[in-house]
Write a structure and sequence with these properties.
The complex is a heterodimer of chains A (about 80) and B (about 170).
Chain A lengths: L8 E5 L6 H11 L6 E6 L4 H12 L2 E8 L2 E7 L2
Parallel strand pairs in A: 1-2
Antiparallel strand pairs in A: 2-4, 3-4
Chain B lengths: L10 E6 L4 H16 L3 E6 L32 H4 L7 H6 L3 H16 L4 H10 L3 E5 H7 L11 E3 L1 H9 L3 E4 L1
Parallel strand pairs in B: 1-2, 1-5, 2-3, 3-4
Helix pairs in contact in B: 1-5
The chains are: A alpha+beta (about 80), B alpha/beta (about 170).
């Protein structure tokens, strides 16, 4: 972990299971401008593979994903 | 619109043919997930899936004839919640309100675990512009009227769905 990613918006999906994290992320992404970054927090163990698939399908880049104290954190840049 | 346009979004065509709580989930989960990925989604609600388009949902679930369904309590200590209660078939079929009880327990378990309700998922599907087609033939057979269903749906037949599905990348029957 070297450079720090600055997010423009934070979305907490803690406690939610599939498909809510991807649905909430896509909703939040619609509010952002191209190039802005969404920081998404989830506790669903299915979120890491799903957010990767969501990123590939939508073209919104997954800049980084990490695990912190049992939470999954994603930085997504709007295309 | 169709695959002749290379820039067209991917398309998912689903058939929802079952109306119990357990079977109502897959079409709405897949539809909202696909919608969230920017896909075009259409669901054809037919036979027992058609009541999923009613304004007020009364979906139930039962372990009767459904032996794989776990019977677990949504409250108490973790070990207690983990017990899969062996309910005899005699009890399931003879105790009045058993289906309602099983449904309440299942809904509570879903809520505790953070699973959205069918109502919430359907509302999200509407917001994601999921096309919902109610089956005209099922309406005729079971005596439903257009006004029995939510205004966001449309009514059509097999040809309406097949035309949509012909251009879909993924087609699933649930």
């Amino acid at each position: 972990m070297t450079d720090v990613i600055k997010e423009d918006q934070v979305l907490d999906c803690s406690g939610m299971l599939c498909p809510m994290p991807v649905v909430k992320a896509s909703k939040a992404m619609k509010e952002l401008q191209s190039g802005q970054v969404l920081k998404m927090i989830a506790t669903d163990p299915g979120a890491p593979p799903d957010m990767e698939a969501w990123s590939r399908q939508t073209g919104n880049e997954l800049l980084r994903s990490l695990t912190e104290e049992g939470k999954f954190i994603f930085f997504l840049r709007k295309k | 619109m169709s695959k002749s346009d290379p820039n067209a979004p991917k398309r998912l065509a689903l058939i929802a043919s079952k109306g119990t709580l357990d079977w109502a989930y897959p079409p709405f989960i897949l539809a909202t997930a696909a919608g969230a990925m920017g896909w075009e989604v259409g669901i054809f609600f037919t036979f027992f899936g058609l009541p999923l388009l009613k304004p007020v949902l009364t979906t139930q679930v039962t372990p009767i004839g459904n032996p794989a369904m776990p019977m677990k309590m949504p409250f108490g200590p973790e070990g207690f919640q983990g017990i899969n209660w062996p309910i005899p078939q005699m009890v399931m079929t003879n105790v009045p309100g058993f289906n309602a009880l099983a449904t309440t327990l299942m809904k509570q378990t879903f809520e505790n675990k953070g699973v959205a309700s069918i109502e919430e998922l359907r509302q999200m599907a509407i917001e994601l512009d999921v096309r919902m087609i109610g089956c005209q033939m099922t309406m005729d057979v079971f005596g439903f009227k257009r006004e029995d269903f939510i205004k966001e749906c449309e009514i059509g037949g097999a040809a309406t769905f097949l035309e949509y599905a012909a251009d879909a990348d993924v087609q699933l029957f649930v």
